[in-house]
Every structure is written in structure tokens, then in C-alpha cells.
Amino acid sequence: MIETSVLDYVLPEERIADRPASPRDAARLLVVSRTAGILSHRRVRDLTDLLDPGDLVVLNDTKVVRARAAASKVPTGGRVELLFLLRGDAGRDDLPAASRDTAQAGRTCEALARGAGRPGTRLRLEPDGPEVEVLSAAAGTISVRLPDRFDLRAWLEKSGDIPLPPYILRRRGERTARPEDFETYQTVYARTDGSVAAPTAGLHFTPGLLAELERRGIETASVTLHVGPATFRPVSKPGFPEGEPDAEWYSVPPETAGAWERARQRGGRVVAVGTTAARVLETVSREGAGIRAGDGWTSLIVRPGHRFRAIDGLLTNFHLPRTSLLLLVSAFAGEETTRAAYGAAIQEGYRFYSYGDAMLVL
């Protein structure tokens, strides 16, 4: 069983980054040897020197949606903040009726909220939104009924807020994201709407860095995993999340499965950009048979002792204590190496969390 100490560390508040590096690839990079445990200090732009021609870099092309919204209770006017969980077709009203599974498809949606009230409570979306009805409420998650012919996704795109992590807002002393966050809290290659949080390791890439990787013969390919809130739930005391997390939707295109196979055949390494890309690849890996293309849902928790079949390297940010993200890093790098790397990062003044610096484990 994993020692809980590897998931705990004390981080000074000033080490939490409240803005990204500029330019993005100027962020610091702690390079970790997975086998020897050797640490070195570089910049993200040095990836072109740290990787070899023939290596494959796998990116998560999910796009963060404007999923945060304000609401007021009817008729009291009490303020409620909602983070909508746009899974599948929830919140859409642009599908033909024949494609809906039931009459309720697209008419209900879940959201994270505190103090939203009991079932039957009505909430008015702000600004200028309709009323929605709370259907159920448990453990900080509510389900709401949407009005007929109301496209929640379209309304959020116009009136919603980017779901910037609360620790960034706390550092800034603000309640909402800044206008520049709508660009900086998004990877430059984001393509498919669906995440409530950015795949933060990918925030360090620039068009120039991607072009230089290609010029040097380092291939890139994409998968999709729509990041949900379960990714960030704390790990329980014994060192594992309590129960299985909510499933998150993923997609692996045939082109990516082919790129993975070509990299293996030529002896190149497969480097996942972020724990989300790593989870997708490990989800679709097959013993002795490569990876399979396709769509699906994954609730995979990668724990120490996991046998990695699909990746040889991991580019990742520095994560919050007691999260499944840090659990995966510890599984890949090793518990002692992870502890040493985080200790060195704190000592050397690295910036942490979503807008912070990065670590490359090879």
C-alpha cells in the first residue's frame, strides 16, 4: 500500500501560480530520470533537446467550456454558484428528437453547487437566463431540469465563466476569471468542447514549440479526455480514492493508434502530455497488442503497482496533495523519486498547480 506521506506536502501559498509563464514554453521544467532518480533543471522549450527523433508526444485536445454560472434562488434572491457537468448530450437542444434516448435527454443536467437548496427549489440563471428546477441534491452535486427549447451549452458559451481553479482566484482575491484567462486557460491545440478543467501540462505548448518538435522528427498525436471534477477529488486516508470516480469520456482516433504503433516499431518513446493523456493510453492498452482506437468512458485510477504498457514518459504539472493525479505520477516515477522531485521543486522555487511549472519523467 502506498505511504500517504508521498501524497502530502506543505506548499507556501506564494508558490501557487496565479498566472502562466510568458511565453508559455518559458516555464521551468524539472527533468526526472525514472530509473536513476536523477534530477535536472531545464525549460519546457528544451523538450526539443530532451526528446529524440522518432519519439511520439501524445496531447489531449479537449477544450475547456464556460461551465461556471451564477444563479439566484427564486424568490429569495440568494446567490448560488454552479459548475455544470456537461456530460454527453446534457444541456444540448440542437439534436433531432429521434436521436434522444428518452424525452428527458438533454433536458436535465448535473452541476456542482453548495447551498442550492432541496429538490423543488427554483434557480434563475444570471444574467438574463431562465429558471431551472433542482431535482436532486447530494454531496455537493445537484441535478436540475432545464426548460424546453433551452440550449444550456449555447447560453453558457455566451454568458458563462471559465471554470478557473478556486486556488487561483483565492490567490488573486477575485471571484471570477479575468478576460485573459479565456485564452491562457486553454491549450493552443484545444479542439473538442467538454472539459471543466484544462489538461494543464498542455498549457506550456506554443505553436512554435510544436513546429520545432515536428522539424526535429518528433511526432505528435492527439487523444481526447474530457476532464471532470472527479479527477481532483481528494484521496482517502489509506491512499486511494473512496470508491471509483465518475467516468470521463475519451476518444482515441485511428491515426493516433497508428502513430503509437509506428513509434513502437522504430524504437521511439511514447510521451504522454499530462495525466489525462496517460490515463487514456493506459485505458486502451492491451497486453502484447498495442492500443485500440475508439470512444468510451474511463474510470481508471492509476495507482502504484500499475504496470504501464502504453507510455514511456510523462510531462506533467505539479499537482495538489492527495489527488489521483499525484497518485498516477507516483505510480509512474516511483514513490521515493516523486517525493524527492517535489521536495526539490519546492526548494528551488518552482511554481505549482495549473498555471505553474512542469516535470518531465523519462
Report on the structure:
This protein is of the alpha+beta class and 362 residues long. It has 9 helices and 19 strands. Strand 9 (131-138) and strand 10 form a beta hairpin. Helix 8 crosses helix 9 (335-347). The longest helix is centred in the last third of the chain and has 13 residues, at 335-347. The model is unreliable at 94-105 (pLDDT under 50).
In spatial order, strands of the major sheet run: 2-1-19-18-14-3-12-13-17
User: Overall pLDDT, averaged?
Assistant: 89
* Helix share bin: 10-25%
Rg over CA atoms, rounded to whole Å, is 21 Å
Structure annotation, total helices: 9
Distance between the termini: 24 Å
Hey, roughly how much beta strand do the residues contain? 25-35%
Low-confidence stretches: 94-105
DSSP strand tally: 19
Shape: globular
Order of helices and strands: EEHEEEEEEEEHHHEHEEHEHEEEEHHE
Structural class of the secondary elements?
alpha+beta
Largest sheet, described in full? Answer: 9 strands, mixed
List the helices and strands and how they pair.
Elements: E1 28-32, E2 39-43, H1 47-50, E3 56-60, E4 62-64, E5 68-74, E6 79-85, E7 108-112, E8 122-126, E9 131-138, E10 141-145, H2 152-159, H3 166-172, H4 181-184, E11 192-195, H5 207-215, E12 219-225, E13 248-252, H6 254-265, E14 270-273, H7 275-283, E15 285-286, E16 290-291, E17 294-298, E18 313-317, H8 324-333, H9 335-347, E19 358-361
Parallel strand pairs: 1-19, 3-12, 3-14, 4-11, 14-18
Antiparallel strand pairs: 1-2, 5-6, 5-8, 6-7, 7-10, 8-9, 9-10, 12-13, 13-17, 15-16, 18-19
Helix pairs in contact: 8-9
